[in-house]
């Protein structure tokens, strides 16, 4: 890690061309800080949420924690520009925000000395060897919350057992999403003490976006199918599929939302080079609340933080990441918006949620993108079946809430135990 420092600086410069947020406070990545930190009047809880999805899930935990500890001071750390921008929404005066430093002994030591957290909480998967060892040495209890570990990640970690096992063993506690995640984490020596469920079930969709999307959907002259959070290569698979498999039933209005903002222009060019007419979300500012966006071959969702709008605008969604064999994306938000999901074969990143959604008839599994296009177009062509599936999605989303309260209670108990 120490030898990689110059390469990491170059990587940040390159990412900063498309996403300027990566050029903000670069020295924090190396454990160097400009401003001193005043002593906190209450407990200082550090929460690390690497990217956008983890930060949104952390938001419901933060709300629950503030209810229990009104005087808590939060330190939020992130690894991506989108995560850091989202984190600003959850901060109040007195809270702190920084990049998590790269995992070297020196940077971790400077980070802990500078901020002096009373406890640390890592969201989902972010366990680093030097970080875990540094927290144990400094007496900072470090917890992995909303923890998940796929079979693929377990196999990778086992190949790096000399690094992974001491890192997981150094944690103060692990609170897993599911029993299957708990078992895999225990195989790495992690101190799993509870299974609390998935925090993302506690996330409520933005009501303003929900209403705007529903009104646009009602005004649309044809059913809308969304390719949600698509990963690199999946748009090309979709383009090939819609040419090979014409939609079943009425003509579909397609909507594509790429997972990463730096790919918006690239995807637009791919679609246009494929002979399709594209209308971008960034050009819809003049569309009235009761007027649908202009019909064309594809609507392109080139905005951040509007997935509730896109899911409520769509009648059904193809799950990005599940067709390009990258483990799938989170389908819980789609269900909470009442949007049925058609998912491909690769959902190992969200194995538990995907299996539960399929069992609840809130999601449909297919073998490839061609079948996905056919299934989604057939579903939106049958209003009765679509209504049943939409109701199943809403019921599924509501049936698994409560992880935020359980996690906040456990974190409060940890702070009490440390103070005592």
From TrEMBL:
State the taxonomy lineage. Bacteria, Pseudomonadati, Pseudomonadota, Betaproteobacteria, Burkholderiales
Q: Which family does it belong to?
A: Belongs to the glycosyltransferase group 1 family.
| GO MF term (any one) | Kdo transferase activity
Any keyword Secreted? no
Name the major location: membrane
Mention one GO biological process in which this protein takes part, according to its record: lipopolysaccharide core region biosynthetic process
- The positions annotated as site (Transition state stabilizer) read 124, 200
Q: Where in the cell is it found?
A: Cell membrane
Positions of the catalytic residues? 54 (proton acceptor)
For the keyword Cell membrane, the answer is: yes
Pfam families for this protein: Glycos_transf_N
Question: Which residues belong to any copy of the 3-deoxy-D-manno-octulosonic-acid transferase N-terminal domain?
Answer: 25-203
Under what name is this protein listed?
3-deoxy-D-manno-octulosonic acid transferase
The main enzyme category here is: transferase
Q: InterPro entries, from UniProt?
A: Glycos_transf_N, Glycos_transf_N_sf, Kdotransferase
Name the pathway it acts in.
Answer: Bacterial outer membrane biogenesis; LPS core biosynthesis
Q: Which UniProt keywords apply?
A: Cell membrane, Lipopolysaccharide biosynthesis, Membrane, Transferase
Q: What does this protein do?
A: Involved in lipopolysaccharide (LPS) biosynthesis. Catalyzes the transfer of 3-deoxy-D-manno-octulosonate (Kdo) residue(s) from CMP-Kdo to lipid IV(A), the tetraacyldisaccharide-1,4'-bisphosphate precursor of lipid A.
GO cellular component terms?
A: plasma membrane
Q: What is its EC number?
A: 2.4.99.12
Task: Provide the reaction this enzyme catalyses.
Answer: lipid IVA (E. coli) + CMP-3-deoxy-beta-D-manno-octulosonate = alpha-Kdo-(2->6)-lipid IVA (E. coli) + CMP + H(+)
């Amino acid at each position: 890690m120490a030898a990689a420092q110059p390469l990491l600086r170059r990587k940040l410069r390159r990412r900063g061309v498309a996403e300027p947020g990566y050029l903000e406070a670069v020295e924090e990545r190396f454990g160097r800080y400009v401003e001193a930190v005043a002593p906190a009047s209450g407990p200082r809880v550090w929460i690390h949420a690497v990217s956008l999805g983890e930060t949104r899930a952390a938001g419901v935990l933060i709300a629950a924690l503030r209810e229990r500890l009104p005087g808590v001071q939060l330190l939020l750390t992130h690894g991506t520009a989108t995560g850091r921008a989202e984190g600003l929404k959850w901060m109040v005066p007195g809270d702190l925000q920084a990049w998590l430093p790269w995992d070297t002994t020196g940077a971790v030591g400077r980070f802990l000395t500078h901020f002096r957290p009373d406890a640390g909480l890592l969201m989902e998967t972010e366990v680093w060897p030097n970080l875990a060892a540094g927290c144990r040495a400094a007496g900072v209890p470090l917890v992995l919350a909303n923890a998940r570990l796929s079979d693929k990640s377990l196999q990778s970690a086992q190949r790096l057992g000399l690094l992974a096992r001491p890192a997981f063993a150094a944690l103060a506690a692990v609170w897993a999403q599911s029993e299957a995640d708990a078992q895999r984490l225990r195989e790495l020596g992690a101190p799993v003490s509870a299974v609390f469920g998935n925090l993302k079930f506690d996330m409520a969709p933005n009501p303003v976006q929900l209403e705007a999307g529903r009104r646009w959907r009602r005004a649309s002259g044809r059913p809308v199918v969304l390719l949600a959070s698509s990963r690199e290569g999946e748009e090309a698979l979709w383009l090939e599929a819609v040419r090979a498999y014409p939609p079943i039933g009425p003509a579909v209005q397609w909507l594509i939302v790429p997972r990463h903002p730096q790919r918006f222009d690239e995807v637009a060019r791919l679609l246009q080079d494929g002979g399709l007419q594209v209308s971008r979300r960034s050009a819809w500012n003049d569309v009235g609340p009761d007027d649908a966006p202009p019909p064309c071959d594809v609507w392109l969702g080139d905005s951040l933080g509007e997935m509730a709008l896109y899911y409520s605008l769509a009648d059904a969604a193809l799950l990005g990441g599940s067709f390009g064999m990258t483990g799938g994306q989170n389908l819980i938000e789609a269900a909470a918006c009442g949007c049925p999901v058609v998912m491909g074969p690769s959902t190992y990143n969200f194995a538990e949620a995907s299996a539960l959604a399929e069992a609840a008839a809130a999601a449909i599994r297919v073998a490839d993108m061609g079948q996905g296009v056919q299934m989604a177009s057939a579903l939106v062509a049958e209003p009765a079946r679509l209504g049943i599936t939409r109701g199943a999605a809403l019921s599924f989303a509501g049936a698994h809430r409560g992880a935020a309260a359980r996690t906040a209670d456990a974190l409060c108990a940890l702070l009490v135990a440390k103070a005592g």
